[in-house]
Amino acid sequence: MTALQVGPNRLQIKVDPEESGAGLFAFESTFPPGGMMPYLHFHRDQEEAFYVIEGLIEYTRGEDRIVAPAGTMVHIPAGLPHRFRNLSKDAPARHLALVTPGIKGLRMMRDFGEIDFFDLDAVVETMRRHNSELVQVEQRQL
User: Could you say which architecture CATH assigns to the domain 3-135?
Assistant: First the structure.
């Protein structure tokens, strides 16, 4: 598997921990104009970092809002609520996501690729299975 579709976002897998044995999962995510991760959520045992490749992405990181142009890196420690969105109304945005432990991140993204990402009950259950929790939903996107 080299690609996944999670909601409106297309994920290109760059480092697959199952194939490589790496402790890291890496994927490039492309967001359509205005596209976002509408769920403020946290992972109890996964750490993430995002490197903006193209566009302007707003990250919610705990209480902070970070407007990140290309070349920006945003780190999300385990346990910190976060979400993100493409601020452009007419151009896609891309970031490289790095997740550790990688195998947990890969399994979670696979499961998200198999559900209706806008079915709140399915999202809550998928997060629960992966030791993650929904905190808040950005209503205008659902």
Answer: Sandwich (2.60)
